[in-house]
Amino acid sequence: MYNINRDLANIFKKMAAIYEFLDDRFRAMAYQRAAHIIEDLPEDIRNYIVSGKLYMIRGIGPSIASKIEEYVKTGKIQKFEELKKQVPEDFIELIDLPGFGPKTLKKIHDELGISTKEELVKALKDGRVEKLEGFGPKKVENMLKGLQMYEISKRRIILWEALQISEYLKEKLKSGLKEIKKIEVAGSVRRRKETIGDIDILVTAEDKYRSKIMDFFTSIEEVSEVLVKGPKKSSVIMKFEGKERQVDLRIFNDDEWGAALQYFTGSKQHNVHLREIAKEKGLKINEYGVFDAKTDKKIAGETEESVYQSVGLKWIPPELREDRGEIEASMRDALPDLVELKDIKGDLHVHSTWSDGVVSIKEIIDFVKKKYRYDYIAITDHSKSQRVAHGLDEGRLLEEINEIKLLNKMIGFDFVKTGIEVDILLDGSLDLPDDVLSKLDWVVASVHSHFNRDNTDRIIKAMENPYVNVIGHMTGRLIGLREGYPVDMNAVIKAAKETGTALEINAQPRRMDIDEIWIRKAVEEGVKLVISTDAHNLGNFAFMEIGVYIARRGWAEKKDILNTGSWKDIQRFITEKRKRFGVKYV
DNA sequence: GCCGTTTTCGGCCCGACTGTTTTCAGTCG
């Protein structure tokens, strides 16, 4: 699907890069900000023009708004075309590289007449750059390294991997250094973003131990390179399973902890906004605390709560800190009461050896009953179209149902719910007939074929089946591996509301599908969501955590998530839909 | 280019580290 928002965001990012090169920092900032805002919009930007809401978005002023309208009308932005002529094409990309700032590139361009990446590499290697005033061998070395590093920094890792690495490093530092008092991973890991660039670790310790801590950190066995090393901050490249990651460590005093945590958790936009508010109130916030701007007297900083409180705000959960309205909500004391892992009462998308799972239903029961305090789980194996996954036909599904009944008898209550992940076929019909689906406790319907077309029509048709309770992994995306197929999510959310169908938040770490933007939209529309692990083995049940994080980033509360309720609540949801369609209900 | 219960003009977050300097500019997050 043609995504005008993404196109516009990319243009504004490039314009920001050009303005940076032209040393117009603040204009660059404005365009950067606009690009982020447009990326985050839940709807096609053309809808905002039509409804007149474009001008009401904070960060989009008259000039950028008129450029958006120009692009929508003509497919071009005249100013962008003009700007491109002022900067060598390659430099728009180069400005993002570590070690390549606007001043550096401009000097190289002006004094050596260099305008392509190739010429630049050559000049770096043959010593021409090194001879420029203000340059030297180290700077040239770092620029060459920056070119190499670029590939690494572009490859972001998924949240799950970042959480594993974070836990490992926390444990390593804590056990190796008794001098560390507090330790936390901040940055986008703490905000639980879908993908992570760098890992930021914060610790507190007495001043005298700083050099010892930095020595230990920079010599951890996974460290392949030390980028910077100082008493307060060090940066290294670490290698995990062949993948390189930048890891930063910062040391603070105990009374600075809250301010440091707040500062380094970000996001950048959230912090900038927060600082603006502080400034209006005559305060100054930095990573060491909140200060009176005039007297420099410290008034807060030991806890994050105190930092927010000092500017008149309630503490904001890290998952919300993206400057998407959370600061305003905090001011009004109207922050959502976000769903938590402990609220989850069961898992409604689980595969067993009946299809492509690797453990039997019996093993799943033993494991889940021991490790999780769930009230129910639904076994939802694949249907027959999924031949490679040994999908179930009607006969085998009935056998599976019988096995579940027997197992429940042994448990003493209906802990395991019978279910299916039924394929949505090309025409939107389902892989099993209604009379079979009607016998099941829970029906997930998913698209597993024809990934190269817009599948909105298929999904909506599936929702119109009275026995379909939830749509599984909506877009089919696999982060970093495969783009999702196009889906008109506004239409899907509307259909979900009208038909009484839930939407799945698939917690597989590479899926996280639907994403936070659409979760928020669904929540706003009052559409119910289900967080599911789509487990194929016992380890996968741990992914529930990921699903909850993504739900929280989408502002979801406990009441929005169907599987925070009892099975009775879920039955009520199922019955509601069947009633609407006038079919027999449980 | 955006924004405003101290502003419609004059600000725009701010501190750490590095490299090239010899007191600081550039970059980064």
From TrEMBL:
UniProt cross-references to SUPFAM superfamilies, sorted A to Z: DNA polymerase beta, N-terminal domain-like, Nucleotidyltransferase, PHP domain-like
Record-annotated Polymerase/histidinol phosphatase N-terminal domain positions: 346-426
Highest taxon above the source species: Bacteria
Cofactor: Mg(2+)
Keyword Ubl conjugation tagged: yes
Originating species: Persephonella marina (strain DSM 14350 / EX-H1)
Protein name per Swiss-Prot or TrEMBL: DNA polymerase beta
Reactions the enzyme catalyzes: DNA(n) + a 2'-deoxyribonucleoside 5'-triphosphate = DNA(n+1) + diphosphate; a 5'-end 2'-deoxyribose-2'-deoxyribonucleotide-DNA = (2E,4S)-4-hydroxypenten-2-al-5-phosphate + a 5'-end 5'-phospho-2'-deoxyribonucleoside-DNA + H(+); 2'-deoxyribonucleotide-(2'-deoxyribose 5'-phosphate)-2'-deoxyribonucleotide-DNA = a 3'-end 2'-deoxyribonucleotide-(2,3-dehydro-2,3-deoxyribose 5'-phosphate)-DNA + a 5'-end 5'-phospho-2'-deoxyribonucleoside-DNA + H(+)
Pfam hit, one: PHP
